[in-house]
Amino acid sequence: MPIYEFRCTRCGHIQEILTTGSQGQVSVVCEQCRGEEMERVLSRVSYVMGRSASSGADSPRVTTKSCSPGNSCTTLELPGHSR
């Protein structure tokens, strides 16, 4: 079940709401001021990736090279499974 964060437009309080995918639209009321004007907040994401047996790298690798005169291209390689 996903947990969504909502911010009250009246008092600014942020609260989490646990919902099921089958509920559709959910009515949300502020826990502090009982306001009904709530907006969904984009939640931060955190994840941990283990060491990859094939690459041996724990962290992303950034490579920058010249693509054309005056321009550069940057590649970000993330650890984990590759195709």
UniProtKB/TrEMBL annotation:
Name of the protein in its database record: Zinc ribbon domain-containing protein
Under the heading InterPro entries, the entry gives:
Regulatory_FmdB_Zinc_ribbon
Q: Where is this region: Disordered?
A: 51-83
Q: Where is the composition biased (Polar residues)?
A: 52-75
Taxonomy, superkingdom: Bacteria
Q: Which parts of the sequence belong to the Putative regulatory protein FmdB zinc ribbon domain?
A: 1-43
Organism of origin = Desulfacinum infernum
Which Pfam families has this protein been placed in?
Zn_ribbon_8
Supply the SMART domains for this chain.
CxxC_CXXC_SSSS (SM00834)
